[in-house]
Design brief:
The protein has 16 helices and 15 strands. Helix 2 runs antiparallel to helix 5. The longest helix is centred in the first third of the chain and has 28 residues. The radius of gyration is 44 Å and the shape is elongated. It starts with about 50 loop residues before the first helix and ends in a 26-residue tail after the last helix. About 0% of the residues have low confidence.
């Protein structure tokens, strides 16, 4: 029950016995009148519409297993359309149509029937006029039909990747639904995370955009000073190329009002070989004793000379020598290049300098803060430089600001104790999580940087560490706190304890710049028993290209063998 058994041995033949071809053509041979669908008598034996073209043409020598494949395709045609492949009572015309392959495709023959394209392709392949284009065996056509019933594509239809994918989904509906749901949820989460990230992270906002090649550009936002920042001077001369630098003198942006995060981009040209600019941000504009001094604040020292060194420096007090916190000897300018771009910015404790293809990065664990740290200045000792444009940006508050912004605002106004209290209050409110971690880290950094009373500072730092220990098994800012501890211990002359912490830091974070920060502090002669450990920590330090060990009492440089230093 449920199986179709087809039995008709009336036209069976032994394949081992060859047959001769019929010489008469269908048009010449007298054929009996019969209708399609019934087996006719005569030399051409078969049912019109179901016999293969080689049968209809009387080419008995060409009959093979593929002849039966044609008949199977015709039966499938009839099953799909409820019609015979050919209709009519003119037997000669039916034979001619068979020989020529003038069979109406199933979908056109029965447009009201839903005939799958997969099975129609199987029918058309099985009923091909040329025997070689048909299936070779009945097993192949059976496998095609079974593939369709099982939800797979048939070979005859040459399905596209899209259709194969659709069939795969249909075969595994539950799995496909689960995967689709997971993808949708994942995409939704990713989109939400991206939107939340953008809302939580600030963008740079343009404060001024000055094109010095524009002769109509007013220079009211700029002030010009002599080399000592002592007296104002006349504005620098302008040409069609831009603003011509006056050697050694300063250009100062008036009242930019950017106390912390600031970015400046300068495009300039030079006709000489020096081509270097000095840029200061977060600076205090105060008169200087020497023309070569640098204002209090962060600075970018650049040079176009092939053997020159670019530096990021920090000057903590007027009249003092700036501390180098990052440097590079990489070649910047290529022969023939006259146009250059300098970008210098500070974002929290990160400093970044880029001039053409050279980039420098630095971290300042004790960054400047305060209302009067808000000036920007530019100078050059190369009189061939022409400033073409200058853009200044400030970092806007994110749409979704962190609660710690309240403490940051107090730091900007130099209310450091109030800021620390605010950070601790926020940390206590949030107890755990990223906000609490950030608040505790900033409370620690602010106390270490700006609380001068030793006893008070120590109490605050201990209190922060107790909160961290009681609330967090792992603390996101632990390495930064250790770096601050190492620097404070070194400044206080406790070098051995500092080096012990440095060893822990480098194990946690091999690319830490803690030794660079220590080497930027005033050099002191170390006890001889500390020198091996001191040199070992320097040897561990990555991305160290320039080294000045004067004043430390170092006599043995063998621990640094293999490091590329200048």
């Amino acid at each position: 029950y449920g199986e179709v058994i087809l039995m008709d041995w009336g036209l069976a033949k032994l394949v081992s016995i060859p047959e001769k071809d019929t010489e008469e053509k269908p048009d010449d041979e007298p054929l009996p009148q019969c209708s399609a669908g019934r087996t006719g008598d005569g030399i051409r034996k078969g049912t019109p519409g179901y016999m293969a073209p080689e049968q209809a043409a009387g080419k008995n020598s060409l009959k093979s297993f593929r002849t039966d494949i044609y008949s199977l395709g015709a039966i499938l045609y009839s099953i799909l359309t409820f019609c015979n492949p050919l209709e009519g009572n003119d037997l000669k015309q039916l034979l001619v149509k068979t020989i020529r392959g003038e069979i109406i495709p199933p979908a056109q023959r029965a447009p009201d029937n839903f005939i799958p394209a997969s099975l129609e392709a199987v029918v058309r392949k099985a009923m091909s006029v040329a025997p070689a284009e048909r299936y070779a065996t009945a097993k192949e056509i059976r496998n095609e039909v079974l593939a369709f019933l099982s939800g797979y594509a048939t070979h005859a239809e040459r399905a596209t990747l899209l259709k194969r994918t659709v069939l795969l989904i249909r075969r595994h509906r539950i799995t496909a639904i689960a995967v689709a749901a997971a993808i949708i949820i994942g995409l939704g989460a990713a989109i939400y995370a991206a939107v939340d990230y953008n809302r939580s992270h600030a963008d740079w906002i343009t404060l001024c955009n000055m094109d010095f090649t524009d002769p109509e550009l007013p220079l009211g936002k700029l002030e010009f000073y002599d080399a000592f920042l002592n007296e104002k001077t006349a504005p620098w001369s302008r040409t069609a190329e831009g603003l011509k630098v006056k050697r050694g003198h300063w250009l100062w942006l008036t009242n930019p009002g950017i106390r912390e995060n600031v970015r400046i981009v300068i495009e300039f040209s030079n006709s000489g070989s020096g081509g270097g600019l000095d840029v200061c941000i977060n600076a205090r504009r105060r008169p200087m004793k020497e023309w070569h001094n640098f204002p209090q604040g962060y600075g970018a020292w650049t040079t176009g000379a092939l053997n020159g060194m670019d530096q990021i420096v920090k000057n903590e007090s007027a009249g003092a020598s700036p501390e180098m916190i990052a440097s590079s000897l990489a070649r910047k300018y290529r022969p023939g290049e006259k146009l250059h771009t300098l970008e210098f910015f500070r974002r929290n404790d990160q400093l970044h300098l880029k001039i053409d293809r050279v980039e420098l990065h630095a971290t300042d664990l004790f960054p400047f803060a305060g209302r009067d740290i808000d000036s920007i200045g530019v100078r050059s000792f190369d009189g061939t430089i022409t400033l073409r444009s200058m853009k200044v940006y400030r970092l806007a508050l994110p749409l979704k600001a962190s609660p710690v912004v309240a403490g940051d605002s107090l730091v900007e106004t130099r209310h450091f104790r109030e800021a620390i209290e605010k950070y601790l209050t926020i940390a206590d409110d949030y107890v755990r999580g990223p906000v609490a971690e950030e608040a505790l880290a900033k409370a620690y950094i602010t106390a270490a940087s700006h609380v001068e009373d030793t006893q008070e500072r120590s109490q605050i730092l201990i209190g922060v560490k107790r909160r961290i220990a009681s609330r967090f098994t792992t603390f996101a800012y632990q390495t930064k706190i250790l770096e601050i501890d190492a620097l404070m211990l070194w400044k206080n002359g406790n070098w051995q304890a500092s080096l012990s912490i440095v060893k822990d830091i480098l194990q946690r974070k091999p690319d830490s710049a803690i030794m660079q920060s220590i080497l930027q502090l005033p050099h002191v002669r170390l006890p001889e028993y500390l020198l091996p450990e001191f040199m070992a920590r320097i040897a561990q330090t990555q991305e160290l290209t320039r080294l000045n060990l004067s004043g430390f009492g170092v006599n043995d440089l063998r621990p640094l063998a293999g490091k590329s230093l200048t």
